[in-house]
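ESCALATION

Customer reports they have been waiting on this structure for their group meeting. Please prioritize. Original submission:
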Amino acid sequence: MSENDDKDSKTEEATEKKIRDTIEKGKLPVSKEAAIFTSFLAILVYAVFFASSSVAELGVFLSNFLEKPESWPLGTERDVIELYQAVIMEIGRAVTSLLIMLVVAGLAASILQNVPQFVGERIRPQLSRISLTKGWSRMFGVQGLVEFLKSVAKLSLVVLVLIFVLSNDHRRLLAGMITNPVAFASVIRSIAVDILVVIVFVMGAITVADFVWSRFHWRQEQRMTKQEVKDEMKQAEGDPIIKSRLRSIARDRARQRMITAVPQATLVIANPTHFAIALRYVREENAAPVVLAKGQDLVALKIREIAEANGIPVFEDVALARSMYKQVSVDSVIPPQFYQAVAELVRIVYGNKAQRRTP
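Update from on-call: job pushed to the front of the queue and completed.
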């Protein structure tokens, strides 16, 4: 079956179990554009609130370095190392806040989309990740086409933004070139902020669209075939054949336990071969007779056989046996409507026992 045929057969919405298992494996819907959007947003915030002072401090340092080279002797290896360290420290001081903001933006883009969790499955080596067939399908499948179209759209929008901004600010840019460096830096920063604002708005729109698409596509990927839904229901509820076998074993055990309890019965009510109910009544144990066993056909005959072998009285009462069989439960006292009929039989049993004890 081809991949298209397989996808066409997935007509059912994913079950809660399928979604839960997929999330546990770390296969979550993620918008790649969110990280780019938050990164541009961080750069914009840096350009508006931090770039001016940071760049000015770096400019002062470089200006002093270029205007007073004698202040930085390079006669020894130690001098070169100190100069290198000073330059690195000044550049690091200028961009540290930007780097921190980019890291925070990347983490925020991930955390806001999905709750962070450690998934060992994601780092386990898998041959499918280096498979040429899988790689080809990822590159030229639906997802690959969407990624390509997004890249083209982003590139086109960036080009349009640059053309639009530069067409409006080219005079300001040319004028700034003939001013002093500090003023020109301010012009560059102003133009950069304008470009970043437009890019942030454009990337925001792309991110929203990609966020919706990624979740829609993820849902589509989780769809199941009817057979998969049936198999999952079998797993959740148990295989019918196995369940039937387990019920059969449980019935056999319950039947064996009933047969084992028959010798403790006080009397048996039968009809005469179709039904049999074994009752036990001891005044000190229960207020009413308790059903030790009940059975039909072969089981009824087995109950009668054991009762007769153990000298337990068997009373044949067709109506009473049939009625009790339908309404009584094993290991439970008999319902009140049978008290009077059973009490008469119990009286007969105890009366016969008393006569046998009388010399």
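Sent to customer with the following note: Strands lie at 267-271, 275-280, 290-296, 314-316.
Escalation resolved.
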